[in-house]
Amino acid sequence: MKRNILMVHGGGPTAVINASLYGAVKEAQASDQIDRVYAAQYGTGGLMKERLIDLTDVPEETLQRLLTTPGSAIGTSRDQLEEAEYERMADVCVKYNIGWILFNGGNGTMDTCGKMYRMCEKRGLDIKVMGIPKTTDNDIAVTDHSPGFASAARFMAQSTKELLADVSGLAIHVVVLEASGRNAGWITAASAMAEDEDGLRPDLIYLPEIPFDEEEYIRKVEELLKTKSGIVVVASEGLKNKEGKPVVKPIFQVGRSTYFGDVSAHLANLVIQRLGYKARGEKPGLLGRASIPLRSDVDVEEAVLAGKEACRAALAGESGKMVAFRRISTDPYRMEPFLVSIDEVMMHEKTMPAEFINEDGTGVTEAFKTWCRPLLGGPLSPMKVFVKGEKQ
């Protein structure tokens, strides 16, 4: 007897989350094991309310639009779940004859995936549960990288390159660009890729892996101002001091979702107050995960592949696992998907390794740039800058 498959999105969207949905739905539509292809509207909350979207007969021309649609086409959520919620989701899955569930998301969603897998096992339900990785922060363990990161990295690199050109042409202030990433500095580090071709690069890069020292920061900026009148600093939203406390007190926190204070404004204000020099903060925020024009072609391809592989694995009887990527080579770039036990990735956060961070903790190494470069999906737009922000 045929059964139904369910797609669930969790956490913040990426520029390619819908590409993974496309891959999974295409694979499901082609299977003779599946009757209906469902998606939970607005994540686990929608599932508990039995708000299911039927994608079974959606035509190819409509599905294709998923490849160029930002946000989550089916809706996502950040629900805080307890045992009762997992019981409820299991009940709904039984009611709708669900035989396979694909969870697409980051660390929190992979935790949900693992707990749902255990709930199905506990109740003796024949429901296969698989994870599709998704995160701009690139902090999911085991996998070389996750769909979503490459596009966020390209956005950050291109935006930094454009900001550097602006500051170079009107070199009158210190500009602090704030990057997303709670505890992992992968997106922040991607700003260093702006140097390719044009040679302009951020003057200072501050990652959340390195304790932030305000006095040292002011000293470095002051030293730079002796030879430059325009300076670009890139800083993670998750900067912490040596005591492990955020340099700007978070506005509030719900579960894993921390609403940070404005780090870029804080660092800019320090320059104004301590050095009496013009400064301003810039904060792309959600733009970095919503941009379709600046996304990576490599990211799109791999996101589609991750969705297809998760669906194939589940239909083949695999459960309690996540699709991950293994890098075969960097030049030329070659990657292969594989399955990893969900227990190895549930809430295990992957941060920047020491070999990717430069000696004084204010930049990245060539090793990071070599690792990151093929993920961007080709060269950034050149700026053709002739002046470079020297002291006027």
User: Biggest sheet, strands in spatial order?
Assistant: 3-2-1-4-5-12-13
Q: Approximately what portion of the residues adopt beta-strand conformation?
A: 15-25%
Low-pLDDT sequence parts: none
CATH C-level category of the largest domain: Alpha Beta
- CATH architecture label of the largest domain: 3-Layer(aba) Sandwich
Strand/helix succession:
EHEHEHHEHEHEHEHEEEHEHHEEH
Shape: elongated
Number of helices: 12
Number of domains: 2
SS-based class: alpha/beta
Instruction: Report Rg.
Output: 22 Å
Query: Using DSSP, what is the number of strands?
Result: 13
Kindly report the CATH topology of the largest domain.
Rossmann fold
- In round numbers, the mean pLDDT is 95
What gap, in angstroms, lies between the N and C termini? 76 Å
Largest sheet data: 7 strands, mixed
Helix amount:
25-40%
List keywords for this structure.
single chain, 392 residues, alpha/beta, Rossmann fold, seven-stranded mixed sheet, four-stranded parallel sheet, 12 helices, 13 strands, elongated
Characterize the structure shown.
The protein is an alpha/beta fold. The chain folds into two domains: 3-135 and 293-344, Rossmann fold (3-Layer(aba) Sandwich), CATH 3.40.50; 149-291 and 351-376, Rossmann fold (3-Layer(aba) Sandwich), CATH 3.40.50.460. The protein is 34% helix and 19% strand. The chain contains twelve helices and 13 strands. The protein has helices at 17-29, 43-48, 60-63, 83-95, 107-122, 149-169, 186-190, 214-224, 263-275, 287-290, 297-315, 366-372; strands at 3-9, 34-40, 52-54, 98-105, 128-133, 174-179, 204-206, 231-236, 252-254, 257-259, 279-282, 321-330, 333-341. The strands form three sheets. The chain has a seven-stranded mixed beta sheet, sandwiched between helices. A hairpin with a 2-residue loop joins strand 9 (252-254) and strand 10 (257-259). Helix 1 (17-29) packs parallel to helix 11 (297-315), helix 4 (83-95) packs across helix 5 and helix 8 crosses helix 9 (263-275). The termini are far apart.
